[in-house]
Amino acid sequence: MPASAQAFPNKPIKLVIAFPAGGPTDITMRALAEGASKVLGQPVIVDNKPGAGGSLPAQALQSAPADGYTLAQIPQSIFRLPYTTKMTWDPVKDISYVINVTGYAFGVVVPTASPLKSWGDFVAYAKANPGKLSYGSAGNLTSPHLTMEHVAQKADIKLLHVPYKGSADLMQALLGGHLMAASDSTGFAPQVEAGKLRVLNTWGDKRLAKFSDAPTLKELGYDIVQNSPFGIGAPKNTPEAVVKRLHDAFKTAMEQPAYVDALHRYDMVPIYMSSAQYRQFAQDTFAREKTLIEQLGLAKPQ
Fold first, then answer.
1. pTM for this structure?
2. Where are the alpha helices (DSSP H) in 77-166?
């Protein structure tokens, strides 16, 4: 191991995440950061930078030194941004991929008092009232937004999308009567369990144990599965030995009970990819997102 990596880390590491404090991403990533801190012998400090379609952490890597002391959560949304937004960096080439750690469970929820008792009701209302059924997500061009638009296209309905900065703001708006529905990760679980929200569908390969009454998109006739894997990246050209040290620390942290328990709270599961596997996933996802963006008519003019 080179001397530089042997000495790494000798000061705190910053982990920038794409969503606000208090949501599922923040809570699970803080548990992971704490586990990695114990292995690395230095604090891993979470810094929340929500907004801009989840791209701010990856953006922060573009100006950070390539020394492993600035890391970022890489949400799936960054692989579609170059097709919709003017960007000066490449999400595949300009990030050192460290490790993939998990992904989300998603679904659509409405207030319990809503007349939309099922997905069938939702579609029927949207067909009768084109563009009037409002739903929120945790931001433009996030997986909940794009998947919902993909489903709407397949169902031949037009919806009104309202973006928020994260799950906490979105749930407040839904419970406050400002929206008819929300597409989100299962940060909505506490409100469902408290009897305030109803789940109309979920987006995994099979039903979630916690919401076993809610059908999957596949069961409803849409050939769509979405779990939006995410992990951790470092600046481009970070030394391989430093990437390996970080990978090994976060891999160990993924196996700690505190992290597994935090994931379980939100129906999330560990999704491990090594540095090489994660880099390949980034390449494949970048190509696949181009197809979806074009299909939805969201590509920016060339």
1. 0.82
2. 81-84, 119-128, 143-155
Question: Which has the closest alpha carbon to 226: 104, 64, 43?
Answer: 104
CA distance 160 to 183: 12
Tens digit of pLDDT at every position of the chain (302 positions)? 444 556 899 999 999 999 889 888 999 999 999 999 999 999 999 999 998 878 999 999 999 999 999 999 999 989 998 998 888 999 999 999 999 999 989 999 999 999 999 999 999 999 999 999 999 998 888 899 999 999 999 999 999 999 998 888 999 999 999 999 999 998 898 999 999 999 999 999 999 989 999 999 999 999 999 989 999 999 999 999 999 999 999 999 999 999 999 998 888 889 999 999 999 999 999 998 998 889 888 887 76
Q: Between vectors from CA 75 to CA 271 and to CA 185, what angle results, nearest 5°?
A: 75
Backbone torsions φ then ψ of 77, nearest 5 degrees: -60, -25
Rounded Cα distance, 172 and 284, in Å: 36
Residue type, 78: I
Whose tokens are 């801009």? That residue is 52
Structure tokens at 256: 């700690």
Bond prior to 9 in cis (omega within 30° of 0)? yes
